[in-house]
């Protein structure tokens, strides 16, 4: 894509200087659209921002670089584990989703995922169960079966994502 490097270079300093949360969310989203996988670490400093939307943008940005969520990048993994505990359900879901796409497997991760099997937010439970199931953890498969039993039809909340997960598990 033309001007990708130039765009990332323009946006990177704004990550450190922008004070307005709305503008910072925009900068993070734009930066993660243009930056390289190595450069995505520049957004980690905003993972504990007071604005929930900023934290969600960080989780979204990291989730888009799921191949970077590996043991070789413990700072990224640790940030996503913290974001998986965020009070905003959408941020938790996005952080957990990153682990459904990541190859990393560790006891600490499985513990966090297992804890989210009891999350009050259905989408967070689905992502946690999917991440466990994709790691051949029986707790995830059982939770997915339980969630599937509560789905009444294809329009029920979570039905589409469960269908996607079923395809991933069969692949």
TrEMBL record:
Gene3D superfamilies in UniProt: Leucine-rich Repeat Variant
Matching InterPro entries: ARM-like, ARM-type_fold
Designated name of the protein: HEAT repeat domain-containing protein
Lineage of producing organism: Bacteria, Bacillati, Actinomycetota, Actinomycetes, Kitasatosporales
